C-alpha cells in the first residue's frame, strides 16, 4: 500500500497521467511522434529535485512540471497541454484508488480462501455454542468459520463495487 500512497508514488501517478495525455495528443497529431518518443524516454520522478522546487514555488504541480522541463528541454512544451492541475490530480487519484482497491481485493480473496479451507478442515470440530455471552447448544468450529467465509464474500463484492466507482477520475 505504501508504494501507492507515498510521496514519490503521488508524483509518479501524476507523471503517468501527463504521459497518457501526451500519447493521446500524439495519436491525434497534436504532438510530433519524435517528440513523444523523447518524452516517453526521458522523464522520471526525481523526488528530491521536485521537493526543492516545490519549496521555492509553493505549488506541487508547478514543481513537477518544472522538473520535467529541466529533463525534457524544449519538448516540455508538449506536456500539460489543455490540462489543469486538478485534471491531473483527480485522474491520478482515481488510478491510485483503483490500485489500492486491487490490493484490498487480493487480500480479501486470500482471506476467503484460507477461511474456506479452515471451515472444511473443522467441519466436525465441536465447540461450545454461545448466545448472549453464555454457553448454548454445541456447534462446530467449521460452521462458525463458514459464516465468516460468507461475510468475507459479501465484503469482497462491496470492495469490487467500490473499486468500479472510485476508478473514474
Question: What can you tell me about this protein's structure?
Answer:
This protein has helices at 2-5, 7-27, 33-41, 47-57, 60-72, 85-121, 141-166, and strands at 126-127, 130-131, 134-135, 139-140. It has two domains: 2-83, Fumarase/aspartase (N-terminal domain) (Fumarase C, Chain B, domain 1); 97-166. The protein is mainly α and 169 residues long. It has a two-stranded antiparallel sheet with strand order 1-4. A two-stranded antiparallel ribbon has the order 2-3. Strand 2 and strand 3 form a beta hairpin. It contains seven helices and four strands. The mean pLDDT is 96.
Q: Topology of this structure?
A:
Elements lengths: L1 H4 L1 H21 L5 H9 L5 H11 L2 H13 L12 H37 L4 E2 L2 E2 L2 E2 L3 E2 H26 L3
Helix pairs in contact: 2-3, 2-6, 4-5, 6-7
The helix-and-strand class reads mainly alpha
The biggest beta sheet, please?
2 strands, antiparallel
How many domains would you count in the coordinates?
2
Order of helices and strands: HHHHHHEEEEH
Count of individual beta strands: 4
**Helical fraction:** over 70%
Question: What is the residue-mean pLDDT, rounded to a whole number?
Answer: 96
What CATH calls the topology of the largest domain is Fumarase C, Chain B, domain 1
* SS summary, helix count: 7
Distance between the termini: 20 Å
The strand line-up of the biggest sheet is 1-4
- Stretches with pLDDT under 50, minimum 5 residues: none
Per CATH, the superfamily of the largest domain is Fumarase/aspartase (N-terminal domain)
Radius of gyration: 25 Å
The percentage of residues in β strands lies in: under 5%
- Indicate the overall shape: elongated
Instruction: Return the CATH architecture of the largest domain.
Output: Orthogonal Bundle
CATH class of the largest domain: Mainly Alpha
